[in-house]
């Protein structure tokens, strides 16, 4: 594991391994998992709760490392990812593979032994889905990669719930659906102003395959589906007014921003202000929605 700088070989350090775990993505995974855990009925010992969240975070890190191992050559072609440890030459691919497999085995094993095997099984499947189904199959082969692949990021709240209850009911399924239907408009907004990067890497993202107008139509359409899924827990009586009011407000704002993107005719990435606003808000949207859901359930309890 070396990188050449001024003819001096320097070993990859802890920051490179940390970068392999995709810490920004991990933060969202950990937060939604924690909210799923807090929203679940019943109780769990604080040590076991910490263990469950640690395992979920470690599993997310394993997924990120395996993704970067497989996509090292693609990452080198994209400005957004060229500085990662593998394309930048700071680490050998074999080291990333070993690191990812080690994290995956550790996270699933500890989750099963310390918490329960249902949550461990879902965690194992989520790692497999992201590293194999999404990264190796969907992403390079179909513009619907984000639609189907959205399931990979939707498992954490279900795992958090299962860690407490040992089962899966309708509410964690709706939490899964919330992230699943949030993923396409979130990533397609990004793909619109990062179109040239994905094109350089040969990744068939929707804007590169179907065009910008079709992508904006899809974003707007999925925003209505997202809104319906988001308010469902309240309409079905599973949550109270805290989550209900938050969901209505958040989705009204999301639809306004999605409509602005739909009306936009911007072609150049530098002019895509509507898409950039939608992408930025979509991240905040998910944090607020899950925080409100967890708070609401805790208050009701």
UniProtKB/TrEMBL annotation:
Its EC number is 2.5.1.141. It is a multi-pass membrane protein. It catalyses: heme b + (2E,6E)-farnesyl diphosphate + H2O = Fe(II)-heme o + diphosphate. InterPro entries: Protohaem_IX_farnesylTrfase (IPR006369), UbiA_prenyltransferase (IPR000537), UbiA_prenylTrfase_CS (IPR030470), UbiA_sf (IPR044878). It is an enzyme of class 2 (transferase). Pathway: Porphyrin-containing compound metabolism; heme O biosynthesis; heme O from protoheme: step 1/1. It is found in: Cell membrane. One of its GO terms (molecular function) is protoheme IX farnesyltransferase activity. Keywords: Cell membrane, Heme biosynthesis, Membrane, Transferase, Transmembrane, Transmembrane helix. The chain crosses the membrane at residues 25-44, 50-70, 96-114, 120-137, 158-181, 219-236, 242-262, 278-295. It comes from the Bacteria. Carbon 2 of the heme B porphyrin ring is defined according to the Fischer nomenclature. Belongs to the UbiA prenyltransferase family. Protoheme IX farnesyltransferase subfamily. HAMAP family: CyoE_CtaB. Converts heme B (protoheme IX) to heme O by substitution of the vinyl group on carbon 2 of heme B porphyrin ring with a hydroxyethyl farnesyl side group. This is Protoheme IX farnesyltransferase. It comes from Sphingorhabdus buctiana. The gene is cyoE.
């Amino acid at each position: 594991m070396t990188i050449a700088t001024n003819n001096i070989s320097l070993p990859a350090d802890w920051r490179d391994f940390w970068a392999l775990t995709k810490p920004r993505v991990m933060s969202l995974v950990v937060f939604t998992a924690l909210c799923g855990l807090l929203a679940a009925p019943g109780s769990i010992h604080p040590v076991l709760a910490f263990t469950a969240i640690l395992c979920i975070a470690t599993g997310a890190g394993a997924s990120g490392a395996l993704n970067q191992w497989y996509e090292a050559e693609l990452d080198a072609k994209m400005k957004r990812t060229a500085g990662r440890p593998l394309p930048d030459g700071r680490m050998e691919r074999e080291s990333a593979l070993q690191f990812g497999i080690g994290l995956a085995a550790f996270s699933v094993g500890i989750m099963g032994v310390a918490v329960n095997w249902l949550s461990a099984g879902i965690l194992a499947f989520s790692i497999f889905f992201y590293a194999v189904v999404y990264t190796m199959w969907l992403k390079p082969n179909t513009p619907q990669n984000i639609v189907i692949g959205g399931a990979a990021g939707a498992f954490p709240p279900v795992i958090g719930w299962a860690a407490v209850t040992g089962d899966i009911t309708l509410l964690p399924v709706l939490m899964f659906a919330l992230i699943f239907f949030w993923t396409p408009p979130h990533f397609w907004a990004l793909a619109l102003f990062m179109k040239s990067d994905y094109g350089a890497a040969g990744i068939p993202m929707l804007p590169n395959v179907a065009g910008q107008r079709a992508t904006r139509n899809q974003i707007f359409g999925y925003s209505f589906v997202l809104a319906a899924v988001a308010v469902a827990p309240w309409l079905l009586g599973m949550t109270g007014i805290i989550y209900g009011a938050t969901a209505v407000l958040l989705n009204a704002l999301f639809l306004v921003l999605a409509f602005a993107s739909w009306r936009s005719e911007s072609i150049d990435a530098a002019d895509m202000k509507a898409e950039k606003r939608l992408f930025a808000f979509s991240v905040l949207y998910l944090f607020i929605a899950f925080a409100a859901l967890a708070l609401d359930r805790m208050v009701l309890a």
